[in-house]
Specification:
The structure holds two protein chains of two kinds. The N terminus of chain A is likely disordered. In chain A, strands 2-1-3-11-4-8-6-7 form an eight-stranded mixed β-sheet. Chain A has a three-stranded mixed β-sheet with strand order 5-9-10. By secondary structure, chain A is an alpha/beta fold. Chain B is an all-alpha fold. Helices cover 78% and strands 1% of the residues of chain B. Chain B has a two-stranded antiparallel ribbon. The chains are: A alpha/beta, B mainly alpha.
């Protein structure tokens, strides 16, 4: 019995010791710089690739990114428990107001959402915005509906019920998809609206891209929306869409970058913009930015400089890792704008060392 | 112990006595501290959940429990579909799992020859060790297609006039959720019931057999009544797991906040909506509403446990 208590005491002491050490570590000026980040799950594969590549050339900087979801990323960066947050949807004005300092949105990459389907004997499907809205509103309920046949004269659309699959978990994917539908369909905007979690009029909910993909794969006659990267890696057939210019576009990476280019003219200074239903002949209409959120004024100059250098590297050298992972690179004109934004970061009111020089 | 050491001398006796007392005291305080830790954690959790859901409590009042509308875009939150989904899927799971588990327990404790006993009980208990996400994946890729192709259409053509079997058979839905829960709680109920049945004194069995009872009559008249309160306890343990299970159910239940009598219809549970929406919820009211769902789940669990305890207490009083 006594021994047990000694053991417990030892454990308690050790725990207390560890805690003390933990508390002291971030204050130490020397040693590797540790950057903590948290947020969106969508860019996680890209960010973890960036982190490991950046580590190779900058062994003194350790970056730890946790993909806890955009909502969590916004909460944590607002509470300053992380050095940078990440979110698929830009923060709202109300959310920005809650933060203790000015937050800057840095677009890092582009993603697209595709309408994937499972129909026997059909591998190509062309949809108009009205048809996508009609299916997800529950107005078009069977695959052999004449409205679907009109843009698909060659396809043998079967006489089966349409089963809609949607994301049941709150997600940036849903936010982008519903943002698109709200733009192209007044009925959707009025009945459902846009957001990370919405009340879908019809269908079955599944958790995560993998859940929606699983439902589509196992249920003939189903249709749902998933991230482009996910559909490509899993060989799900997906629809081509008619864009704002009236052209039919497949969700290729170039088409996603084109959507960002189409939105450049109307892009506000803080990059908070939706690029769904974008202008341009080649633009894929369900595209979006994903952002890293950093404070304009960094509390720690050393960390701030490291963070700015990392972001500088990410929007330049980092972009070459995007295509392999099915992310679309930022258009060149936008990179210039983001460069300018990174140069405005400060610490204690003083500008950080030029990230361009340190970033390499 | 003190008496035997007493022969060695008064000093030693005193020292040992003090030491024993000290050890005992420490032990007592230690265990009391651990027990208090559990109670305090529970209390702190309850307080924290009430605090976190304060906004939703004041905004929606009791209407939160009766409203069926859950629309984060319009900031309207009502939890009734989740309460319904949780209770119905768990009840369905019990309906399926209890008879099967009792059958397994009776086989293992009363009927099985030794060569069968070990492998069967090992395999049944192995079910409890399978992570719930594996059950979920199996549910998505095996169970739901099977339900959609081979189970639901015949059920509908035979019993389609009942409200439970109406609607398009899609596989995903309440039936899949209940079935997967049933499989997950089966090992809990069966292994606890088996232990309870094995604790029945063999004199009772021998007495029943001596009076001319068949095997089945012996189980029915001697074993089951004696083990009744323990079996109810086993069922409660299973129910507890069913109510709180999140991952596997989320993956097959269809996640749709609607109340429908049909078992083919998609549904939603309290644990699932919390897991689904909490990570991406940024609105204060949304977060608060999710906290209130957690609070309700907590209350439902506590209420069911109290009912179960009363049931056990009543049953055991009647049977003795």
């Amino acid at each position: 019995m006594k021994r047990l208590f000694c053991l417990l005491a030892a454990v308690a002491a050790a725990a207390a010791g560890c805690k003390k050490e933990d508390g002291a570590a971030p204050a130490a000026p020397a040693g590797p710089i540790e950057l903590q980040g948290a947020g969106a799950t969508f860019p996680y594969p890209l960010y973890s690739k960036w982190v490991s590549e950046y580590q190779k050339i900058h062994p003194d900087v350790r970056i730890n990114y946790q993909s806890i979801g955009s909502g969590g990323g916004i909460r944590q960066v607002t509470e300053r428990t992380v050095d940078f947050g990440a979110s698929d949807a830009p923060m709202t004005d109300a959310e920005l107001q809650k933060a203790p300092g000015k937050l800057v949105h840095i677009p890092t990459t582009l993603g697209a959402v595709v309408v994937a389907f499972n129909l026997q004997g059909v591998t190509a499907l062309e949809l108009t915005p009205e048809l996508v809205a009609g299916i997800f509103l529950g107005q078009i309920t069977r695959w052999n509906d004449p409205k679907l046949a009109a843009p698909n004269p060659g396809a043998k659309l079967p006489d089966t019920a349409i089963t809609v699959a949607y994301r049941s978990d709150g997600s940036g994917t849903t936010a982008v998809f519903t943002d698109y539908l709200a733009k192209v369909s007044p009925a959707w905007k009025e009945k459902v609206g846009a957001g990370k979690s919405v009340k879908f009029p019809v269908g079955l909910g599944a958790k995560g891209n993998e859940g929606v993909a699983g439902q589509i794969k196992t249920s003939p006659g189903s249709v749902g929306y998933v991230e482009l990267a996910y559909a490509r890696q899993n060989n799900l057939p997906y629809a081509t869409l008619k864009n704002k210019a009236g052209k039919v576009v497949a969700p290729e990476l170039a088409a996603v970058s084109a959507a960002a280019e189409g939105a450049l003219a109307s892009m506000p200074d803080d990059f908070r913009v939706s690029i769904t239903d974008a202008e341009g002949d080649a633009a894929y209409p369900i595209s979006s930015f994903t952002y890293i959120l950093v404070y304009q004024d960094q509390q720690d100059a050393r960390k701030g400089a490291a963070l700015a250098s990392f972001l500088w590297w990410a929007i330049h050298d980092g972009q070459k890792f995007e295509a392999d992972l099915f992310y679309a690179p930022l258009p060149a004109e936008l990179v210039t704008k983001v460069e300018a934004k990174l140069k405005t970061l400060t610490s204690g009111g003083k500008p950080l060392p030029a990230p361009g020089g340190a970033g390499g | 112990m003190a008496a035997s050491t007493g022969q060695a001398g008064a000093d030693a006796q005193a020292a040992v006595a003090v030491e024993v007392n000290l050890g005992d005291r420490l032990f007592r305080w230690g265990t009391a501290a651990f027990a208090a830790g559990g109670v305090i954690t529970l209390g702190a959790m309850a307080v924290e959940m009430v605090r976190a859901s304060a906004l939703s409590l004041s905004h929606f009042g009791p209407g939160f429990v009766t409203s069926t509308d859950w629309d984060p875009v319009r900031e309207l939150y009502g939890a009734l579909p989740y309460i319904y989904g949780t209770l119905v899927s768990s009840l369905l799971a019990l309906l399926i799992a209890v008879p099967v588990s009792l059958g397994v327990a009776i086989l293992l404790s009363e009927l099985a020859p030794p060569w069968l006993l070990r492998p069967v009980s090992f395999l049944v208990e192995l079910l409890a060790a399978v992570p719930s996400v594996i059950f979920g994946l199996w549910g998505v890729f095996v169970l739901t297609p099977w339900l959609r192709e081979s189970v639901q259409p015949p059920l509908q053509s035979a019993l389609g006039f009942l409200p439970f079997f109406k609607g398009t058979p899609r596989g995903f839905g309440l039936m899949a959720g209940g079935l997967i829960l049933a499989i997950m709680i089966l090992p809990t109920i069966s292994s606890v019931s088996r232990e309870v049945m094995r604790a029945v004194p063999s004199t009772l069995r021998e007495g029943a057999l001596a009076l001319g009872a068949t095997r089945w009559e012996m189980v029915r008249t001697a074993v089951l009544p004696y083990a009744r309160s323990g079996i109810v306890g086993a069922i409660i343990l299973g129910l507890g797991r069913a109510l709180g299970e999140t991952m596997a159910v989320t993956m097959v239940i269809g996640n749709r906040a609607e109340i429908s009598a049909s078992l083919f219809a998609p549904s939603y549970t309290m644990a699932s909506v919390i897991a689904n929406e909490f990570t991406e919820a940024t609105g204060d009211l949304h977060l608060s509403a999710l906290s209130e769902v957690a609070l309700l789940l907590f209350l439902v669990t506590v209420a069911l446990n109290i009912v179960a305890r009363l049931l056990v207490w009543r049953v055991s009083r009647v049977s003795r």
